[in-house]
UniProtKB/TrEMBL annotation:
Localisation: Cell membrane
Gene3D superfamilies in UniProt: Calcium-transporting ATPase, cytoplasmic domain N, Calcium-transporting ATPase, cytoplasmic transduction domain A, Calcium-transporting ATPase, transmembrane domain, HAD superfamily/HAD-like
Membrane topology classification: Multi-pass membrane protein
Coiled-coil spans in chain: none
Similarity comment: family membership: Belongs to the cation transport ATPase (P-type) (TC 3.A.3) family. Type IIA subfamily.
Membrane spanning residue stretches: 887-907, 940-958
Principal localisation: membrane
Organism of origin: Clostridium lapidicellarium
Xref: SMART domains: Cation_ATPase_N
Family annotation (NCBIfam families): ATPase_P-type
The protein, known as: HAD-IC family P-type ATPase
Keywords, ordered alphabetically: ATP-binding, Cell membrane, Membrane, Nucleotide-binding, Translocase, Transmembrane, Transmembrane helix
Domain Cation-transporting P-type ATPase N-terminal: from-to ranges: 124-198
């Protein structure tokens, strides 16, 4: 999407005070619109020129330029040089006024000029004050745009999407299929036969080439379609202020002037100028290649600040790794910085997966061997006195029959079908090679919250001021009671204080959709607000009485969040977070209406209360506050007053327990790597059957052990708790080092680097952070752990289907080679003529071979151990199976041919028998190669078999086809012989 030139004109004009302007006469454009585009394009290419507008009525160009970069004299000189070089004669280019129509005589419209891609970004937003930008876009920094204004802008500027790469046209697909080696060979032979006057042969071979091309095109089209259609399933969402409300919309509807809100884990949805931020950091590797985090602020930058150093700007596609921010969108779609490089990225060809490369290499080797043998056989036949045409036709058809050239295409089709089946199971594959790896995955590492559990928090227990409370109710509904279960009554003010801190220290809001209450924002914070409502605390009043002046947002490394407010009682800091972290910051505790010293015994006691809550699978949070003394220079994080503890329930997801069992049966280890408390993680682990006889190790313990000890222990660990993002990454790396093929599933920012490190990164598509999704190779649309197991099942199925197709095709090819070679060895008469070989090749390779890739996965797939990753393309077992079947097919075809000749049959009948035997043996082979014979019938295989049989019968019994294939009608006895031979060939 481009901004139309009108818009560029407007925005540049609005900023023309920043640039110098000059109006230069260019005679060649006077009343000559066709001359405008090249000259404007040229002027725009001069460094420092910001815009150029032509007026064909006056014959002048208005140029805005940055005088710090370029001078007017230089621009004028460059234009003169250009005019001379392009030999534009002014006079000759002038179109006489009476020759032009009304339209062309209008002042030049910007619509007609292709805009420089990123003109809008040439406005130095980073140097401008937020109020100036606000005026440009006519927006409101507090309330954002109205829906009406946004729709108008969308109509003018288009959607916020990078222009999509055009899909391959039908013509290029056909040309690609025509470029196929076997098609080229067939076309060559057909042309040769035509020259030699063998018209029926030429036509027959040409028709086979035609069918091969059509099939190739259909295969390509199906593969592309299934992969392409998945790209749009995942919606990138953005939080924006519209109509004075905070709403979450599809990022493609963002327009310049929108006020967006970003937080840790988000992917920036458009280029934007920051107007507010708290501890905001981004990684801009996608744009600048630099992976170190960039600290963001609202400070103005100088005009020459490089892209990577524009601290007050957010750029599309970069990731927020920490903090929160509010920004005004200044560019969308192709006008963003990433838009500039999007075109380049689109031209990068997708890389072949390791399996595709292996298969390509294997096929190339086999092709070379086949062609060499063909040349030898052909040479022998020439010496034996056969004509050049006969030899050529025979060798080409023989080589086509022997070559496994369709194997690489079958890998692609199998993968494309796998991707399609996975999408139906809610798995979006972003990297094709992950399909291969899925089949070999032998360990799933996953975070807890949101992956194994529902990430729907409810506060169940509160401990404060020596009292323990129980809380009833479900989800985020404010209905429920808080009742005292331990301690003295009359401590309600402490309880109120604690829950008030929970509200003040939260960014989430509760909304009612239909009958259901939901938390918008962090579920942990949603649960705290719900608990506060159960005590009838007024959320809005609390926030209004304690206006925030600063926030240090929660992050998984620090594990706590601080908010500083300034109200009538001065500055107060509130903090909530992991219990151990909060206790560390506290010097005193609030009890019996006063603050007293927090002793080490108190700390132990509080930790053990937390431990007990953890044992009940509750997530533990500590709360504290402090008054900020203006005069003292104390650290903001020290000397807090401890208030109490909350324990939140986060129920395990339905079905996860069974899926973990299924993984164990399939030889897949499941390990939880969580940032949560050891006891909480262990209790959930036990509940899910994940923690059996293994160890629970904390992040600190992990840091303390040596590499050797880790290598000894790691196989026994089932839960890693209290881990930081770095430790999660280290664990995945360690598992990989010890030979595991690791799938890492997670949803949070804290999981992203482990997801990236894993052999297969898996992100939750629904509630997962954009960072996790970006790092992952596959995304689960339904956020369900069980979908990972389905994905592995599919990965295994794709691998099996590819192996079975190989088994089927190579055994068939070997059978043909053996039959032809054996017959030549004994009598020199070929058992099959070219057309028969070509037909067998077309039917068995192109049609039935692909049908095997459509096999669905079955129950048994998850009952065997994962595939070995280092397994060769053709294992010993597979090689033996291919050899046995190939020999069976080859020898029976040879036997039926020679046997019938011996019994006095004509050559044409013997060949018909051999041809029918070959096709029927391959059909039996097809069913034997079905991995999953026990499950439902496969309609593609059944239809393929039925049509193949029908065509064979047509070739045999339709007299007008007989001459092309050298066939004749067979008797029932012949069919009995074929059946017998096929059964023998199967043994
Ligand atoms: P997982 O890694 O399995 O998703 P997690 O989500 O529990 O686990 P973190 O998000 O790193 O891991 O949370 C670690 C701890 O930080 C929690 O146990 C809790 O005590 C605390 N915590 C979580 N969310 C917040 C929050 N919004 N504010 C303050 N503290 C929080």
């Amino acid at each position: 999407m481009f901004y139309s030139n009108n818009k560029i004109k407007n925005s540049i004009d609005d900023y023309n005070f920043l640039y110098k302007r000059m109006r230069i006469p260019v005679k060649s454009i006077y009343r000559n619109q066709p001359a405008v585009n090249p000259i404007i394009k040229y002027i725009m290419s001069i460094k420092g020129v910001k815009s150029a507008k032509a007026n064909i009525i006056t014959g002048k160009v208005l140029i805005l330029f940055d005088e710090d970069i370029v001078s007017d004299i230089y621009i004028e000189r460059q234009i003169n040089i250009y005019m001379k070089k392009s030999k534009i004669s002014h006079d000759s280019n002038i179109i006489k006024i009476n020759n032009i129509n009304e339209e062309t005589s209008l002042p030049i419209s910007f619509e007609n000029i292709k805009p420089p891609l990123h003109n809008s970004m040439q406005v130095p937003w980073h140097t401008m004050d937020k109020n100036e930008i606000k005026t440009v876009f006519n927006t409101d920094l507090k309330y954002g745009l109205t829906g009406k204004m946004a729709s108008k802008k969308i109509k003018e500027l288009g959607l916020n999407v990078l222009s999509k790469k055009k899909r391959t046209s039908l013509i290029s697909k056909i040309l690609k299929s025509l470029n196929d080696f076997s098609v080229k060979l067939l076309l060559g032979v057909s042309a040769f036969s035509f020259i030699l006057g063998q018209i029926p042969d030429a036509i027959a071979i040409l028709s086979i080439a035609f069918v091969e091309t059509i099939l190739g095109t259909i295969q390509q089209h199906k593969a592309e379609k299934s992969i392409y259609s998945l790209k749009n399933i995942l919606v990138h969402r953005a939080t924006v202020l519209r109509n004075k409300r905070k709403v979450c919309i599809d990022a493609k509807y963002l327009v310049p002037g929108d006020i967006i809100l970003v937080q840790s884990g988000d992917k920036v949805p458009a280029d934007a100028r920051i107007i507010e931020c708290n501890d905001l950091k981004t990684t801009e590797a996608s744009l600048t290649g630099e992976s170190t985090p960039v600290i963001k602020s609202t400070d103005l930058c100088s005009k020459y600040t490089e892209l990577g150093s524009r601290c007050n700007m957010l750029f599309t596609g970069t990731n927020i790794i920490c903090g929160t921010g509010k920004a005004i969108v200044v560019a969308t779609a192709m006008n963003t910085e990433i838009g500039k490089i999007a075109a380049m990225l689109q031209n990068i060809k997708p890389q072949a997966t390791p399996l595709q490369t292996k298969m390509q290499n294997f096929t190339t080797k086999l092709t070379k061997i086949c062609l060499a043998s063909c040349a030898l056989i052909g040479f022998g036949a020439l010496l034996a006195g056969k004509s050049l045409t006969q030899v050529l036709t025979m060798s080409v058809s023989f080589s086509i029959g022997a070559l496994p050239e369709s194997l690489p295409a079958i890998v692609t089709v199998a993968m494309a079908l796998g991707v399609q089946r996975m999408s139906k199971e809610n798995v979006i594959v972003r990297k094709l090679n992950s399909l291969e790896t899925l089949g070999s995955t032998n360990i799933i590492c996953c975070d807890k919250t949101g992956t194994l559990t529902m990430n729907e928090m409810t506060v169940r227990k509160i401990y404060t001021d020596k009292c323990l409370y129980n809380i009833t109710g479900s989800g985020y509904s404010p209905e429920g009671n808080i009742s005292l279960i331990e301690g003295k009554p009359s401590k309600e003010s402490s309880l109120e204080r604690l829950l008030a801190v929970g509200v003040i220290c939260s960014n989430a809001t509760l909304v009612k959709r239909g009958d259901k209450w939901m938390a918008e924002g962090d579920p942990t914070e949603g649960a705290l607000i719900t608990a506060a409502h159960k005590l009838n605390l007024d959320e809005n009043m609390l926030r209004n009485l304690n206006p925030r002046i600063k926030e240090i947002p929660f992050d998984s490394t620090r594990r706590f969040m601080t908010v500083i407010t300034e109200g009538s009682k001065g500055k107060i800091a509130f903090c909530k977070g992991a219990l151990d972290r909060v206790i560390q910051k506290c010097k005193t505790v609030y009890e019996d209406g006063a603050e007293r010293l927090l002793t080490s015994t108190d700390k132990k006691r509080l930790m053990s209360i937390g431990d007990k809550m953890g044992e009940k699978a509750l997530r533990i949070l500590g709360f504290a506050y402090k008054k900020i003394n203006h005069k003292s220079a104390e650290n903001i994080d020290d000397n807090f007053v401890f208030l109490g503890i909350t324990g939140m329930e986060d129920p395990p997801k339905e079905g996860v327990k069974d899926c973990i069992k299924k993984c164990h049966r399939a030889g897949i280890k499941v390990v939880m790597i969580t940032g949560d408390y050891k006891n909480t993680a262990a209790a959930i682990g036990r509940e899910l059957g994940l923690l059996t006889d293994g160890l629970v190790m904390s992040g600190n313990e992990l840091d303390d052990i040596s590499k050797e000890e880790l290598s000894r222990k790691i196989r026994k660990v089932q839960i890693f708790a209290r881990t930081s993002p770095e430790q999660k990454h280290r664990i995945v790396k360690a598992f990989k080092r010890f030979g595991y093929v690791v799938a890492m599933a997670g949803d949070g920012v804290n999981d992203a680097s482990a997801i990236k490190e894993a052999n297969i990164g898996i992100a939750m598509g629904n509630n997962g952070s954009d960072i996790a999704k970006d790092a992952a190779a596959i995304t689960l649309v339904d956020d369900d752990f069980c979908t990972i197991v389905k994905a592995i099942e599919e990965g295994r199925t794709v691998n099996n289907n590819i192996k079975n197709s190989m088994k089927y095709l190579l055994a068939g090819n070997l059978g043909e080679i053996i039959a032809i070679a054996a017959a030549s060895a004994v009598g020199g008469v070929a058992p099959l003529i070219s057309m028969q070989i070509l037909w067998t090749n077309l039917i068995s390779e192109s049609i039935l071979g692909s049908a095997l890739t459509t096999e669905p996965s079955g129950e048994d797939v998850m009952k065997s151990a994962p595939l070995r990753r280092d397994e060769p393309l053709i294992s010993k077992k597979l090689g033996l199976q291919i050899a046995r079947r190939g020999i069976g097919i080859g020898l029976t075809t040879f036997a039926i041919f020679e046997g019938s000749l011996l019994l006095g049959a004509s050559l044409s009948k013997a060949r018909t028998l051999a041809f029918s035997n070959l096709i029927c043996s391959q059909l039996l082979n097809l069913y034997d190669c079905r991995r999953n014979k026990t499950t439902l019938p496969n309609k593609y295989i059944n239809i393929g078999t039925a049509s193949s049989m029908a065509m064979l019968l047509g070739i045999i019994y339709l007299p007008f086809i007989n001459p092309y294939f050298g066939t004749q009608a067979l008797t029932l006895l012949d069919w009995a012989a074929i059946t017998g031979m096929c059964m023998i060939g199967r043994i």
